[in-house]
Predict the 3D structure of the following.
Amino acid sequence: MSSEVAPPRVSVERPRERADAARNRARVLAAAEKVFAEAGGADGVTMEEIARAAGVGRATLYRRYPDTTSIAQALLDEHESEIQAGILSGPPPLGMGAPPHERLAAFYRALVGLLERHLHLVLGAETGQARYRTGVYAFWRRHVEVLLEQAQAPKELADTLMAPLAPEVYRYQRQVRGLTPEQVAANLEYLSRRVLAGSPAER
Amino acid sequence: MSSEVAPPRVSVERPRERADAARNRARVLAAAEKVFAEAGGADGVTMEEIARAAGVGRATLYRRYPDTTSIAQALLDEHESEIQAGILSGPPPLGMGAPPHERLAAFYRALVGLLERHLHLVLGAETGQARYRTGVYAFWRRHVEVLLEQAQAPKELADTLMAPLAPEVYRYQRQVRGLTPEQVAANLEYLSRRVLAGSPAER
DNA sequence: CACTAAATGGGCGATATGTCCACTTTTGCG
DNA sequence: CGCAAAAGTGGACATATCGCCCATTTAGTG
C-alpha cells in the first residue's frame, strides 16, 4: 500500500453516513438475508429482487454493492470475523496452544458450523471462482499453511485441505448424500489427524 | 435399468441422424471448443456466442443442448471416458492390481492431466453446483469409495478426497498460486499416502 | 431557515434467454 | 426418378436483467 501526501485531518476523513443511507443499508441487508434464505443460495437471486424486497430502487443497491455476491459477502463478514478472532486470540484448540492437527480439526469444526448455519449465504458469496477472490479465503489459507509448517508437512497442501470446505461440497454432502454436520466434521477431523498427526512427512 | 415391453426391432430404433444434423453438430462442437478456450471457462460464454461462432441459428443449438454447460460436457465426455476405461480395464496402477493408495494417486494424476489439458472445458461443464449433477462425478466418487473400503478407511471421505479436483481449485493453484501440474499431482499423491497407506483407521 | 451535497428511484438502451413457426433439406418409398 | 412426410433450421418475438443516467428529494450545516 502506498500513501500519497497524507491529508492533515485525522484518519481518512469519511464524511459520515447519512441517516437515510444507514436506514436503507439496514433494510437492504435484512431483505437480502431473507431472499438468499428463500432461494437457498445465489442461483436465481437478482439485484432487482433484492431491491423489491427491500423496498428501494435498484440504483440504491448499485450505489453500495456491484452485484448480489457482494451483498451476501457483507452479510457473512460478521460471522467470519468471529472465527478469525477465535483463531487469532481465542482459547485452544481453535486458538494457539493445541497441536496442529487438533487446531486444524477445530478450524474445520468451526467452518462446518458456519456452513450449517449460513449455507445459503456462503453459496451466495463464495460460489465457484468468487470463493478465491474473497479476502477471507486468504486468511483461512494462511492459517492452514502455518499449521502445515508446524506439523512439518508440505505447506502447498493448504488449498487441498481447504477444498472440502467449498460450499458446494458441503451442500452436496448434506443434501444429496444425507450426511449430518457431525459426520462431515468427523470426516474432516479424520483427515486432519491423518495428514498432520504422527510422523512428519518423508519426501 | 428397467425395460418395458421390448420393441421387436433391434436396439432402441433411433431414426438415424440426418446428414445436415450431423454436419451442424460437428460445427457446433468445434466452434464451442474454440469459444470456451478463448473465454478460459464458461464465464461470459452465451448460447448466442456459440451459435454465431458456429454459423448456425440459436434454435439449432437449443434443439440439442439446453445450455452452455451441456455443450462443454459433450466435449469432455470423450476424454473422461478414456480415464474411466483406464480405471475399469487398464493396467495398474490406475487399473486393478495396485494397492489402494497407489491407485488413488494414479487416479489423481490422470485427472490432473485432464484438468491441465482441458481446464477451460471442465470450468465450462462442472463449475459450482453443476459438477455434482454430471454422471461422471458419481463414477469418480464410487471409484474413490471402493479404494477407501479396500484400505479400511471410512468411505464417507470420498467427497472430501474429490474436492481438490474441482476445476476452480485447480485453476487457483495453477494461475494464482503458480504451482506446476507436477506439484499439484505430488501434493495429491502425498494426500493419498497419508490417508490410505499405512495402518487402518482406528475410530 | 435557506443552502449544499448526498442519496434516491424510475426510466432507458443493450444483451441474453427460451420459444415459436414458417421455410428448407433430407430421407424413404412408390 | 420424383414426391410427400418428417426432421432440421434460423430468424423473430416476448420477457427479463443489467448497469447507468439524471431529475428530484432529503438530510445535515451555518
Q: What stands out?
A: Residues 100-126 of chain B form the longest helix (27 residues).
